[in-house]
Write a structure and sequence with these properties.
By secondary structure, the protein is α/β, with parallel strands linked by helices. The chain has three domains: 26 residues, no CATH class; 123 residues, Nitrogenase molybdenum iron protein domain (Rossmann fold, 3-Layer(aba) Sandwich); 119 residues, Nitrogenase molybdenum iron protein domain (Rossmann fold). It has 13 helices and eleven strands. The strands form three sheets. It has a five-stranded parallel sheet with strand order 3-2-1-4-5, sandwiched between helices. Strands 8-6-10-11 form a four-stranded parallel sheet. Helix 1 packs antiparallel against helix 2 and helix 6 runs antiparallel to helix 7. The protein is elongated, with a radius of gyration of 29 Å. It starts with a helix and ends with a helix.
Length: 310
């Protein structure tokens, strides 16, 4: 448009030299560059969520997801967190100290607006309405992918690092996971047999993170061997008949519930007394990033103990 106007101007005023025309064009270019810079600064002030902000510059972080809550509390300085979900206030889920200044939200956009977060973390599927509303209002929302296997867990930690920047704890966890995955899994025809037994006699088969951790550690998962896909149910008789060398319970024995009565069976008590059990931490179920690395390391050690037994 400007070029066309200049051509027309030269036709009307033939005394304008090429040198003068070049000077006019350079002046227009400088004006345009100045306008663009001014527009960029204005957008940054009026709509900060639209301008890319270095992850390390995030000073007010909120979470709409239980797992993201726990990871923030583990790895981010407390003064940089303004809100986590109310579930993190429950003893059952809390795995890190809860600073007194934190607002416990119930995944409502209106709750976060007065807190003026510069970054809101949420999961892949949860709190969709609140996330969309916050985005519409100009807040920066990042959806961190969920993790249902070790490859997805790597992606989740990578996405977190992109969102939060270089955090020592996060970097260390990523490094540990990478190192473990680079090790070749223990495989042999006489791998020790293991069976996972959760509340209400639920077991875990192929397609589950728990199965992948078992096989990575060098165990044969009896449930998967019997054709269980994802989740299944086993009777106590089946557990006893299958004669696993390792029984894997889910959750702590201190939290007694009728659903865990199977552990009181005399035969299963023998496993416990002989040390042929392993307990998966509860956080593996709601936030694998908190526990998967340690679980894999501990299962590898457990295998060494069992293989060394006569």
């Amino acid at each position: 448009m400007i070029w066309m106007q200049l051509k027309e101007g030269r036709a009307r005023y033939p005394n304008v030299t090429g040198k003068s025309l070049s000077g006019i064009m350079n002046s227009y270019r400088e004006i345009l560059i100045g306008l663009r810079r001014l527009l960029s600064i204005s957008l940054g002030v009026l709509f900060p969520a639209m301008v890319s902000t270095p992850a390390s510059a995030q000073e007010r972080i909120a979470s709409l997801n239980l797992c993201m809550d726990q990871l923030l509390l583990q790895w981010v300085a407390p003064e940089k967190i303004v809100s986590v979900t109310w579930l993190s206030g429950e003893k059952h889920y809390r795995r890190a100290p809860l600073p007194e200044h934190l607002y416990l939200n119930r995944a409502q956009a209106e709750e976060l607006l007065p807190l003026k977060p510069d970054l809101v973390l949420t999961g892949q599927y949860g709190a969709q309405r609140a996330s969309q509303r916050l985005e519409q209002l100009g807040l920066r929302v990042i959806r961190i992918p969920d993790a249902y296997n070790l490859a997805q867990l790597q992606q989740q930690l990578s996405s977190l690092q992109q969102a939060l920047g270089e955090l020592p704890g996060l970097r260390q966890q990523r490094g540990k996971l990478q190192a473990l995955l680079e090790q070749a899994p223990e495989t042999s025809s006489d791998n020790p047999r293991a069976l996972i037994l959760s509340a209400n006699n639920i077991t875990y088969g192929d397609g589950m993170l728990e199965h992948e951790l078992l096989t990575r550690a060098g165990f044969t998962n009896l449930a998967a061997q019997q054709g269980v896909q994802q989740l299944g149910r086993v009777s106590l008789e089946q557990v006893i008949d299958s004669q696993p060398q390792l029984l894997v319970f889910y959750g702590g024995e201190q939290d007694f519930a009728i659903a865990h009565l199977a552990e009181r069976h005399p035969v299963l008590r023998e496993y416990i007394e002989a040390g042929r059990v392993y307990r998966l931490p509860q956080e593996l179920g709601f936030c694998p990033a908190l526990a998967a690395v340690e679980v894999l390391q501990q299962l590898m050690e457990k295998r060494k103990e069992i293989v060394g037994q006569p």
